[in-house]
Amino acid sequence: MQRRISRWLMAGALAASGTLALSACGSGFQNTPSGGGATATSDLTSSDSALTVLIGSSGDAETHAVQAAVDDWSQDSGTDAKVVAASDLNQQLSQGFASGKPADVFYLSTDALAGYASNGSLLPYGDLLANKDDFYPSLVRSFTYDGQFYCAPKDFSTLQLEINTAMWKDAGLTDADVPTTWDELSAVAKKLTTKDHVGLGISGEYARVGAFMVQAGGNLMNDDSSEATADSDANVEALTYLQSLLKDGSLRFAADLGAGWGGEAFGTGKAAMTIEGNWITGGLKSDYPDIDYSIHELPAGPAGKGTLQFTNCWGIAADSPNQAAALDLVEKLTSADDQLAFSTAFGPMPSIQSAADQWSSANPDLVPFLAGADYAKGVPTAKGSADVVADFNGKVGSLATEDPKAILAATQKNLEALLG
């Protein structure tokens, strides 16, 4: 489970990991024009070539589920296809493009999109999908570059609030006390804090604190990542609020609790509440099966409800000799039947709206995660933004003693350098 968690923990820092040869923060960035894409299915390459599907798997359950779906498609289509579970997805994807023999279909993160799209490595096939109108609009925005919808979101998650029910009860709290506002969150976090555990323990990084920025009406960049908005008043308000919790001791970052991420702090009983995506359910089941907990939507901030969403898409290589078959495979893999099967096998939420009711019925305790789809914001997707996020993460870990305005001003400067 940890491998799946790591794909989101750094809000894309792992997804870049140097494979796109991104420049360092503040050194200047230039985008090259994106390659032209097919405007009709007749424009796609077609051949007898077998397909290679490259995935970054969380483990055997995910690998076997994807392999089964691809095998079903191969049997029906008559086209051979091989699933490869990468040991290092970003490195293997980059090496494939560099050699001129990339995988035909592959997992692609939001922050990797711009780098590969801008150099023409990707087929922008989104508008050719028969089910293109079924995807959540916010997910489509996450995979739109230079006005083109590039690839089908394969699944997604949102951040929500997890509560240790035993600690909640011990603190004298009831269902009526579940926080719906920042003030209420502050109150229950303080009441839950004891000498043995903190009220709220989260990872000290944008991929968690960014949810509070959205609740205040901000984010590091605007929705299409064309404008840097890091130093907005809304973001200052969000970090100042979190700083107040850090200073009164009701919030601690996971690293300061001796934990690698919020789920570990929560699972080991070092935090009564945490903020994570739906991947936490598998992690807790595997590593901390005795924890009794409940899941709730995050409290609303000054601007209302808000959270971050995380997603990958099914990329198709521009150099694939069999783009038509690749598109047909992606349409199957993003169908309701396949996405619901994936959800059962390894936990992701379907990226299509038509599967929402069936998924909710099968996962009633997880519905708060899906509710976030209506108001979630994506992470920055500008080319090189992962480097800026990594720099921000390094600063936000010291939020208890650092000036929120100074942290955000530095991030603003770095993001503006990206946009050049």
Can you summarize this structure?
This protein is an alpha/beta fold. It has 2 domains: 179 residues, Periplasmic binding protein-like II (D-Maltodextrin-Binding Protein, domain 2, 3-Layer(aba) Sandwich); 176 residues, 3-Layer(aba) Sandwich (D-Maltodextrin-Binding Protein, domain 2). Helices cover 42% and strands 15% of the residues.
Tell me what you see in this structure.
This protein has 420 residues and is an alpha/beta fold. The chain folds into 2 domains: 179 residues, Periplasmic binding protein-like II (D-Maltodextrin-Binding Protein, domain 2, 3-Layer(aba) Sandwich), CATH 3.40.190; 176 residues, Periplasmic binding protein-like II (D-Maltodextrin-Binding Protein, domain 2). It has 18 helices and 13 strands. Strands 1, 2, 3, 6, 12 and 13 form a 6-stranded mixed beta sheet that branches. Strands 9-8-10-7-11 form a 5-stranded mixed beta sheet. The chain has a two-stranded antiparallel ribbon with strand order 4-5. A hairpin with a 2-residue loop joins strand 4 and strand 5. Helix 17 runs antiparallel to helix 18. The longest helix is centred in the first third of the chain and has 18 residues. The N terminus is likely disordered.
